[in-house]
TrEMBL record:
<comment type="similarity">
    <text>Belongs to the MIP/aquaporin (TC 1.A.8) family.</text>
</comment>
<feature type="transmembrane region" description="Helical">
    <location>
        <begin position="288"/>
        <end position="313"/>
    </location>
</feature>
<keyword id="KW-0812">Transmembrane</keyword>
<feature type="region of interest" description="Disordered">
    <location>
        <begin position="438"/>
        <end position="465"/>
    </location>
</feature>
<dbReference type="InterPro" id="IPR000425">
    <property type="entry name" value="MIP"/>
</dbReference>
<keyword id="KW-0813">Transport</keyword>
<feature type="transmembrane region" description="Helical">
    <location>
        <begin position="192"/>
        <end position="210"/>
    </location>
</feature>
<feature type="transmembrane region" description="Helical">
    <location>
        <begin position="333"/>
        <end position="351"/>
    </location>
</feature>
<feature type="region of interest" description="Disordered">
    <location>
        <begin position="131"/>
        <end position="152"/>
    </location>
</feature>
<feature type="region of interest" description="Disordered">
    <location>
        <begin position="94"/>
        <end position="119"/>
    </location>
</feature>
<feature type="compositionally biased region" description="Basic and acidic residues">
    <location>
        <begin position="94"/>
        <end position="109"/>
    </location>
</feature>
<protein>
    <recommendedName>
        <fullName>Aquaporin</fullName>
    </recommendedName>
</protein>
<dbReference type="InterPro" id="IPR023271">
    <property type="entry name" value="Aquaporin-like"/>
</dbReference>
<keyword id="KW-0677">Repeat</keyword>
<dbReference type="InterPro" id="IPR034294">
    <property type="entry name" value="Aquaporin_transptr"/>
</dbReference>
<dbReference type="Pfam" id="PF00230">
    <property type="entry name" value="MIP"/>
</dbReference>
<feature type="transmembrane region" description="Helical">
    <location>
        <begin position="363"/>
        <end position="384"/>
    </location>
</feature>
Length: 465
């Protein structure tokens, strides 16, 4: 038996099954005989720089022609690749048992079962100008989920990311890394955020509206008399008829509402009005709990805006709403009801209903209040909002006998708007003039899903009867 230190004796071409010999590949020595046991022992394999020569000894050369070419002086690097032990090649090779296998950074054991696919970027072909995988390609082909390699290119599906509600309280604490933060995804937190936005929005809306009203009434008759500043009102009967004053008050109320609704409608809905809040509850746009929270926020916002305007500006605080001398209480109720119904119905059609121009709803809502103020300021002060009339009365400690009008009138207007809105929804107004706003998504004659929604609403209404 040849010693392991002797140089390898390569068989001649004729001895390996090509013309000139009758031997075959089985004559290539692969094992050493043990003199003690008489059994063949696997030859120890140690990867080194001369892997090609070692491959010949291990029986990897499949044709005797290679041995003949070696004797002619052709370099082994050209004939045999020396990177055969990489994971993609050696998966197809039959290695005798017992051999010590080469270590690979991605494959600890050659005999271990492959529990995951090899890195896809190792198999990727690159151009001559870019021989190394870029970071973008590497990150695109490989992603880690909970320490486990996931590769879409090799057919391993990505795990679905759990939602916040699926996490336990302990997992939520680990994600947020803050103590006592379980309430962050609770209904309490959502109501708190909406109430906070409604409080700030109502305060800003009435602050600018009350401030503009004071500016408009600087030279009014109410400021020329000898009465105290807290007893003054903004009604045309008290301030005197002046078109410029009425126009200024109408513009400041409409613009203030438009701007603040546009800011806060994604936080709280931008209602700023208990009458609008009641209407939204009646059409099931918001829950009763949310409505109560918004109502409290609106009352507090009205109080804060009245206090700030009362003590911040040096002019007389003449923003209360009262009836003019010739307006009766019944007339005041219906004036407030009709103006409020117009405002609430505008909110329904522009903000609640889905259409292409929905993002312009704050503009339409502000314009609706502007139009209503142009009519109502002269006769009732143009309240349309119980919170708008309540705050100044509390700050001035003056509640007029007709103060109830500014609660009952807007509430009746909300009921009227809801009744008409539900009536046209029952009659399927979408089918009367389809595509009026050029929105194919909400056109029932084009979008079958929208038509199915209308038909489902029709079946549910008939079942309720």
């Amino acid at each position: 038996m040849a010693s392991s230190q002797d140089p390898p004796q390569l068989p001649l071409p004729g001895q390996m099954g090509i013309p000139g010999g009758n031997s075959d590949l089985s004559e290539v020595p692969e094992r050493n005989s043990n003199s003690d046991t008489g059994e063949d022992q696997p030859q120890k394999f140690t990867p080194g720089p001369n892997l090609a020569t070692q491959a010949v000894l291990d029986g990897r050369v499949q044709h005797g022609l290679i041995a003949g070419l070696l004797k002619l002086g052709i370099p082994m690097d050209i004939l045999v690749k020396d990177d055969w032990w990489e994971e993609n090649d050696f998966a197809d090779r039959d290695v005798p048992r017992g051999r010590e296998e080469p270590k690979h950074p991605d494959l600890p054991s050659r005999r271990a079962s492959r529990s995951r696919p090899p890195r896809a970027f190792l198999n990727r072909q690159f151009s001559d100008f870019d021989q190394t995988p870029s970071k973008a390609n590497f990150e695109e082909s490989r992603s880690t989920r909970n320490g486990q390699l996931v590769d879409e290119e090799m057919g391993y599906p990505l795990r679905a990311r759990p939602t916040w509600k699926e996490l336990s309280d302990q997992e939520k604490m680990q994600v947020l890394r803050l103590p006592m933060t379980q309430w962050m995804n609770s209904n309490f937190k959502n109501h708190f955020v909406a109430s906070l936005g409604e409080f700030i929005g109502t305060t800003l809306f009435l602050f600018f509206a009350f401030g503009g009203t004071e500016v408009a009434n600087i030279q009014s008759q109410a400021n020329d008399n000898t009465s105290s500043s807290d007893s003054n009102t903004t009604t045309g009967g008290s301030t005197g008829f002046d078109v410029s004053v009425l126009l200024y008050i109408s513009v400041i109320f409409g613009m203030s509402l438009m701007v603040n609704v546009w800011i806060f409608f994604r936080i709280s809905g931008g209602l700023f009005n208990p009458a609008v809040t009641l209407a939204m509850v009646m059409v099931k746009a918001i829950t009763v709990t949310r409505a109560v929270c918004l109502f409290v926020a609106q009352m507090l916002g009205s109080l804060l805006a009245s206090v700030v305007v009362r003590f911040l500006f040096p002019e007389q605080f003449n923003v209360r709403t009262t009836l003019s001398g010739g307006t009766s209480q019944v007339q005041g109720v219906f004036i407030e009801a009709i103006l409020t119904a117009e405002l609430v119905f505008t909110i329904f059609m522009m903000a609640k209903e889905k259409h292409r121009a929905r993002y312009l709803a704050p503009v339409a809502i502000g314009m609706a209040l502007f139009v209503a103020e142009m009519v109502g300021v002269q006769f009732t002060g143009g309240s349309l909002n119980p919170a708008r009339s309540f705050g100044p009365c509390v700050v001035t400690l003056t509640f007029d006998p007709e103060h109830w009008i500014y609660w009952i009138g807007p509430l009746i207007g909300s009921i009227l708007a809801v009744a008409f809105y539900q009536f046209i929804k029952t009659l399927e107004y979408e089918m009367a003039n389809p595509g009026a706003d050029g929105d194919p998504v909400n056109d029932p004659t084009i979008n079958p899903e929208k038509k199915a929604e209308i038909m489902s609403r029709r079946r549910s209404s008939s079942t309720a009867r």
